[in-house]
Amino acid sequence: MIVSRIIRAKIAPAIVAILCLSAFLGACNNNKPQSPEEKNPIFQSAPTLKAITAEIAQSPQNAKLFVQRASVLESLKYDSLAFKDYVHATKIDSTNASYYSLVGQFLFDRKDLDGSVKWFQRALDIDPKDKKSRLKIAKAFLFFHKYQEGLAQINIVLRGDVYNPEAYFLKGMIYKESGDTAKALSNFQTAVQVQPTYKDAIVQMGIIYSARKDSIALRYLDNAFAVDSSDVFPIFARGVFYQENNDMVRAKEEYRKCILKNRHYVEAYFNMGYIYMQEDSIEKSWRQYDIVVKIDPRNPTAYFDRGVCYEALDSIKPAIEDYRHALILDPKYTSPKEALKRLKVAE
Asked: What value does the CA radius of gyration of the chain take, rounded to a whole number of Å?
């Protein structure tokens, strides 16, 4: 009994010491300093962001996690933070061409064409077979009107992938922009042969034939809408075809269909307003532009066109107000300046 009490007496302090140490370590873990990212309220503002940020804290050298978070940040319009994460992924894994391409795409989408080309080129330096990056460079050359450079990039892709529909589509766009609509059509047709649902190529064929006032344009535009009924542009383009061919009744019908499917499609309202103006239906024309002002209050053309209607209805005061507002939105807009000068009032 005496021995047993002595053993228990020796064990008890040891247990207490272990429990104290465990409690101390637990407290240390609970009070672990947070990283700057964990402290940033943005990274905690959405469940997905919070979860990925927690994973990053555990695996800070996992480039994929930074790409995932960048994608979420981009979707939430936190562009500067998204860009930082995309770039950080390239620093963690500098041998992955797709990460450089993602940075290039990010910049391309924001019209930083010079910056995007540099990142796409870095992707190609790592992987010369990166078709996506090469075609993005070709698209940038299209925007720069550097058509031969763009064609050179596309032809490299086609030598390795003769069935690439995007390559044929971009080739068609380059020929269209440079004025060779025959070659443009040929490449758009090839893109559709390779991928029958390639909507953008179908739409472009519709636009080219529409410009030629060839009614086959309507069939292509119908096909494009059948591929993607969420995009009402083909319906709008049908309206433009009829308008250009002086069939205003059918043009208005198409614009109405367009508006019924997408009440925010301002181009349809503008064209309807123009037709009504030509038909001397000024009040109906005014109504179209008034709707655009409500949908898009930062649109200076809508204010100017509504002002023209006011002026035609002898409502000079609101016309002047609309002309002035158009100039506030776009100080370089000459039409409202000329209108105010005609009315002999100050800007």
From this structure: 31
